[in-house]
Amino acid sequence: PTVYSLSAFAEGFPIGVAVSEWNIRNESISNIVIQHFTQVTAENIMKPEVLQPSEDSFDFEKSNELVNFAQTNGISIHGHTLVWHNQSPAWMQGCNDVLDCTNTMNNHITKVVQHFAGEVDSWDVVNEAFLQDGSYRGSADTNDGIAWVEKIGKDYISKAFITARAADTSAELYYNDYNLAFNDAKIDAVITLVEDMKAAETPIDGIAFQMHVTDTYPTIENISAAFQKAVDTGLKVKLSELDVRMNLSGEATALTEVIATAQKNRYAEIIEAYLAVVPKKQRGGISVWGVSDQDSWLSTNENNHPDWPLMFDGDLNQKPAILGFADAMLNE
Ligand code: G3I
To answer: So where does this one cross the membrane (predicted)?
Structure first.
């Protein structure tokens, strides 16, 4: 069986995919994007190191290409990401004091969000601010990136959202992080942040769960419970970077039918949990982190053994996973 258009099954929320500049220049891959998805996220080319390689000098060339591709094909854009410790240019590290660093951060947000105003529909404003124990990520855990909390203070997050809203009043603003679906300390830290922001009338529209998961972990009960906590804030809930690792141990050497079927069921149960827990008006959408297994960050960066986390194989054939995704939406 073939899925003709994954997004055709989604009622009222975007189904997205992360893409590189090479993906949209490749006809076979871009055709898959157009056929199945209604939203794209830039996998790397809207990150600070790409957009502002040196101070106050912005490079929008690749991202403008993505915007053109999206607009030509009626696809919306989720912007990723304005403030992050990783993939930020080294010069940003050099900001001096709270005022200088705040200006550096705000200037980046303002110029980028204004540039894409009316083109980017939603932003990951702040990415990965918390550690597993719910504390703020400091310089010990930034891998030579920028520990914004040490540069500016805990209110850097609120400042970033306020600045983003001022730069484009209609883009939706998300806080984005990983491991939110199994780690109570981490999801609770995010919920506390969001409640504090709401109390202070700081703009924020949604919580984005990256959802880099494995075949068995976290349990579906944990995932549903974490979605529920986010739903209870009243904000939108987005799955922003979904992929399902099937070979964490590295024991498998090939994608067998057994693995592919297990993955199909895993995609299905995650989408089902999202649809069951998140009310229609709070659905920010679901995006997968790449088109094909061959392009996945898990094949290129993370692993020294094969894995098959996405819905298309290395030859761009559909895998059972896409059926699991579609079935879950069809059965709602
Ligand atoms: O473009 C450079 C190239 O110039 C250089 O010569 C080469 C050598 O290292 O690296 C290329 O950059 C790589 C870049 O991807 C573009 O391909 C980086 O090394 C590599 O580290 C980078 O990885 C990205 C990773 O974020 C960085 O943290 C992945 O593609 C991207 O999928 C991944 O995405 C993150 C999200 O932004 C946040 N959530 C987690 C997710 C997965 O890690």
So the answer is: none
